[in-house]
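User: Hi! I have a protein structure encoded as tokens and I'd like to know what sequence might fold into it. I'm fairly new to this, so please keep things simple.
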């Protein structure tokens, strides 16, 4: 009787020199990677993380502990190599790409910054939709085209990060609208709001949510009204990565909301995702539950930038290494578990 690929893969994992399930989630990760690549000997090649940055008009309404000018300042920090994501990608041998999706700043031309700017920040959705539908569609297209370029390098594993003061507000609104969850259950402290500021943020976002009528089935419409340029670009990038059968590393709350949008537009994206960590942002645990996702790490992170992807990547390497290099019971001459 012939066996399916998944049965062969599970047999290989189960017959390594270890008790069943003894490597815990590493076994799940190995199974996922091998299934994506449809091989019993998977490889991770040319890992990349793309950080998309954009400014948010809603930031002017006081939904963040930091001013909006921090967004371009942090992009300059990325270029200089001084941010957390720079440190972690250098440490783990991951290629980092920086993309200006729509920062309210005119950067000098720099080979380290990819200019995908759709506009100089979104509009303040407290007063008008964040972007036009044309801008939303352009974001999806530009995110996808960038991934296609990365694919040409031989990359088969890619993660996505973001930078944008105010983007937890956009992410909370999108999550609330798509999953029909109260905004109070989605809104967190973002960049570190105190209790009073958090209540203000929640009230502002409820006001935003109440003033627009958009169907939960109109994903691009929701991105248009509530989104950020970086969130929409991540969405398009994730779909493109899945379409080319790349492993998609999903970072924290913002990236997971982009993934939620991507999965609504193309459900097959779910088959290529590895959820790297559960953020400390309030809505993320609930979102992971709704996506039936099991994050690799739970470290209390809430930084963004793709840092969770970079930190989880060595565990993917370990999962692939044990699958490819660890001896089986037969190869090692080790006795198997006795059966009664």
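Assistant: Happy to help. Inverse folding works backwards from shape to sequence: for each of the 340 positions I chose a residue that suits the local structure. Here it is:
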């Amino acid at each position: 009787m012939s066996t399916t690929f998944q049965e062969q893969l599970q047999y290989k994992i189960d017959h390594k020199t270890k008790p069943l399930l003894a490597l815990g989630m590493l076994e799940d990760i190995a199974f996922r990677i091998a299934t994506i690549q449809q091989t019993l000997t998977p490889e991770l090649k040319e890992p990349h993380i793309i950080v998309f940055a954009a400014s948010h008009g809603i930031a002017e309404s006081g939904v963040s502990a930091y001013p909006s000018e921090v967004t371009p300042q942090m992009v300059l920090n990325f270029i200089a190599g001084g941010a957390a994501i720079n440190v972690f990608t250098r440490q783990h041998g991951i290629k980092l790409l920086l993309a200006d999706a729509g920062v309210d700043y005119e950067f000098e031309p720099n080979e380290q910054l990819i200019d995908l700017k759709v506009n100089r920040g979104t509009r303040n959705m407290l007063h008008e939709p964040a972007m036009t539908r044309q801008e939303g569609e352009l974001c999806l297209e530009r995110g996808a085209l960038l991934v296609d370029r990365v694919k040409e390098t031989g990359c088969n594993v890619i993660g996505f990060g973001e930078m944008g003061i105010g983007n937890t507000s956009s992410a909370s609104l999108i999550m609330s609208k798509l999953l029909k969850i109260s905004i109070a259950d989605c809104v967190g402290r973002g960049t570190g709001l105190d209790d009073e500021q958090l209540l203000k943020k929640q009230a502002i976002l409820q006001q935003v949510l109440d003033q627009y009528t958009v169907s939960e089935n109109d994903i691009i419409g929701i991105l248009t009204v509530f989104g950020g340029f970086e969130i929409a670009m991540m969405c398009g990038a994730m779909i493109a990565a899945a379409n080319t059968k790349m492993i998609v590393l999903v970072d924290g709350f913002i990236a997971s909301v982009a993934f939620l949008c991507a999965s609504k537009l193309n459900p097959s994206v779910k088959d290529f995702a590895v959820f790297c960590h559960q953020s400390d942002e309030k809505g993320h645990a609930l979102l992971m539950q709704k996506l039936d996702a099991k994050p690799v790490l739970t470290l209390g992170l809430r930084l963004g930038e793709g840092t969770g992807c970079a930190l989880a990547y060595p565990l993917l390497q370990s999962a692939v290494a044990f699958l490819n290099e660890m001896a089986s019971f037969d190869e090692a001459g080790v006795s198997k578990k006795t059966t009664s």
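A useful reference point when you look it over: The domain at 48-315 is CATH 3.40.50.10210 (Rossmann fold). Feel free to ask if any position seems puzzling.
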